[in-house]
Amino acid sequence: MRVRVLRGEEKKYFYSTRAVDVQTRDGTLHTPLRALSQSELDAKARVPLTVPMHAPVSGTFKRMSSNDVSRLFLDNDFVENQIQSLENRRQRMQHSSLLFALFQPSPSAIADHLAQDKDKDKFLRMTLRLQQEAGMNLITVPWVGYSASRAIEEFKTLESETEVEPIFFLDQSMTPDEIKEVSPYLKDLVSSDRVHFIGLLHRPVRKTLASCEALWSSFKDTNAAIISAGIERFDENLDDLSGIHLKEFIVGDILLADVRRIFVGEDTEKVPKKPPEFRIPNIERTLRIFDKSTLTISTIQSRHSDDWIDDVVNELGEPQLKHILRSRREAETDKDKYDVLTGISKTHEYLSSQHEVQVSREFISKGETEEYLGGKTVLNSGLQRVNRGLS
């Protein structure tokens, strides 16, 4: 495998982005690119669609709750289920050139169960063994809140003890000083051809600007692809701008979304499969659809017309979806129809957003980033607001 930075562009107080080539045994991947998430692949299974969902890079982002971490340590059945689930995902995503899975403990899980370094060590051992048992050919090392010096120590141990290529994840909320302390070790691994990817656990950009600047400065010329995982679906503070398309111009080459919020204020993955009285108050005000012209994921009520239906149908190539989308009110009291709408939303978003990232990549690779941004008013405004601390 070989990774090479083709072009990096930055404009002070505005944006930073780059084009990177990743040569794999299946061919060359060109970044920036949007990775296919397990959530998006699952979504397609809910909808009668024939459109393929193959992707050059696929990833699973599992946010481990306090209960998950506790069960990981104490429940054999839970661990076995995680291995089997990961094996299933690996099989379903087998057409991807690169496949990875990140078991990332939540901040509350770290506070509750991983406060001590010995517990952090145990969590890493368990998640690495999960991936090895499932036959993953890239092993992710989640960020568990070590000090910078301890992180380097553990990274060295893991790198020496595993034959599979590791992807070490940093937390975007690390302080700039911590990033500057850890980055030379990772860059040495890149130079020795031991690693080809650097993981980055996404945090809200407006809360981590100094850290983003340190990350960009540390790795902008490094021949390793930066995987940014757990990116929020949209940002209400930036006119519902897609998190993927914002992060593309902050720091990140391979972008993996954490696509949980399909309806406003709703974590659809936590909705009971058969609630006793299922009801969504108002689909018009809650269902969100990606708009490739504005790069926003806004409510359909804000569109002021049903033109978005044609956009969705044309992208997915399924004329029969028109009836489903026009009859969307029925999903307010029907769980099965609700699931179909969430499936359509996720599938359309991935395909349309992926195509738009390809368009932006052409501009970036030619050094025409400002021309691209000039045609994307919401993104342009969002970058300026974030960098000026106005969001």
Give your account of this protein's structure.
The chain is of the alpha/beta class and 391 residues long. Helix content is 44%, strand content 21%. It contains 15 helices and 16 strands. The strands form five sheets. Strands 4-14-11-10-9-8 form a six-stranded parallel beta sheet. It has a three-stranded antiparallel beta sheet with strand order 1-2-3. The longest helix has 31 residues, at 335-365.
Spatial ordering of strands, largest sheet = 4-14-11-10-9-8
User: Number of DSSP helices?
Assistant: 15
Helix amount, in percent? Answer: 40-55%
Mean pLDDT across all residues, rounded? Answer: 92
Q: Unreliable runs, pLDDT <50, ≥5 residues?
A: 261-272
CATH class of the domain at 2-261: Alpha Beta
What is the SS-derived class?
A: alpha/beta
Overall body shape: globular
Q: Number of DSSP strands? A: 16
Major sheet details: 6 strands, parallel
The appropriate CATH architecture of the domain at 2-261 is Alpha-Beta Barrel
Beta-strand fraction estimate:
15-25%
What is the subunit arrangement here?
A: single chain
What gyration radius follows from the Cα positions, in whole Å? Answer: 21 Å
CATH topology of the domain at 2-261: TIM Barrel
